[in-house]
Structure formats: C-alpha cells, structure tokens
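thoughts on both lines:
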Amino acid sequence: MDFGLMDGAGSAAVVAKQKGVVSHAVLAFTGLTDHAYLAAAVSQLIGTKGTTEDVASVAEAAPGGVEANADIHASADYRLHLASVAAERALTQALAGAR
C-alpha cells in the first residue's frame, strides 16, 4: 500500500502470476475521488510478464476517467499525477511478491 500527498489517499495492488505471466491483477485507489474505486486499466496487465514497461503503461492509465478531488493542498491534475506514481509503486511491489 502506498500513501502519498493525495491527502489521506492511497493505492493498493494484488497481483498473481502463473508460469511467469500475470494471471490476476487488482488495483484500488482511495481518497482520490469521493469514493474508493478499482482501476479498470489494470486488466491490461493480465497476460503480460509484468515488465517495467507494462507496469508504467498501466499505472499511467489507471486513474483515467475519474474526477479527482481538488482542494487547498493539491489540484486535481496533481492528484491524478500522484495516483499514477502510487499505482506504479503498488504494482511494482505486488509483482515483486507475485508467485
């Protein structure tokens, strides 16, 4: 789980591999919007080897399509950027422990 400057927000990822290929992947965000949600873009990781490039592509797309919160601490655009960074970290850590 990775908590960043999204003001109490975080991301968490669960990844499983079979024979070196991602067979299951879930990525969740909380605090970025008015409710927690699962990132649909993480399904792009299934069937890949989970390379650095695969993770970067999914992480960039993960917060897409949501209306991020904005307040005096951070703009919505900045929070979306942080969500991508948090997603990449969470997915990388989950892949490191995937079997």
In short: The longest strand covers residues 21-30. The two ends are 18 Å apart (CA to CA).
